[in-house]
Design a protein that fits this description.
globular; 14 helices; two-stranded antiparallel ribbon; mainly alpha; disordered N terminus; about 0% strand
Length: about 325
Amino acid sequence: MTELRPGLAEPISSGPAVAGPARLRAALLDQTPFLVLLLLCTATALMTDRFLTPVNITNVLLQASVMAVLAMGMTYVIVSGGFDISVGSTVAASGCAAAAVMLELGPVAGAVAGVLVGCVVGVVNGVLITRLDLNPFIATLGTMVVVRGAVLLLTGGRPISGDEGLPEAFILYGRDRLFGIPLITWTPILLFVVLWWVLHRSAYGKRLFATGGNREAAFLAGIPVDRVRASAYIWCGALAGVAGVMLCARLQSGQPTSGEFYELMAIAAAVVGGASLHGGEGKLHKTIAGVFIIVVLANALNLMNVDSYWQRIAIGVVIVAAAAADRLRHGRRA
């Protein structure tokens, strides 16, 4: 609404009228990851009729499932003010451990072993960063190299599948469907419900955001900052372990060379979804949108027969663009 004031020839805009466009603009910006995903899917569907086929949709879901679990764990670490580049190696180690144990003790024991391996890596990262005060990049770079080297050493660089293959029940987990959706895809769906509540509704989640937003202020407020930061790396390691077990089921073997570049894609998915590399910001549902942006982009390039090397370049551009957007966002606030 507008009103004329005495002595003024022009109408003066009232507060709500001015705030309306600004509020709409802010709402659209807040939904940017979903709008980008919608545009990407629409453009891909127009360029190739294979995109919306049931087979391709299943393929996208399977590719996104493992990455979604990794990216959710990475979101926890990024919100806490750090990042973890060891998750790709952890995926390989967890998958191989799961395969080796289940050949002896069955699929349940194997899956537990895989997740435990991820937890151990997360604990090591947490200790290095909080107790020894190492930079997260240096600490997780070290564990990335050590874990990958250990896996290659222990397996001789060969896949683990046994003489007769992995247990049939485990293979079915990687192959069967429930209500038309692959069983593997139900894993990130169920995890998302739990992890979203923990991050956005629980007291722990509030402490995690506070720690990432301003560590000193969080400490003065009585938050056990080091314990909270270490716990984020344990979450990330455990979820990398889950992702390794899932990938093992998909590949029907433990692959010591699997998980390469997964850490970069997980970080990119979280940042594309709006998580800040400065810490203290991030929303889990937007991270999932970021995962699908990266997976759909790679799928679109594949459907259009673009060389796989160009696909890597495209993913690299997405990573740089996401980091630049995060920098610009915080530059404006400053």
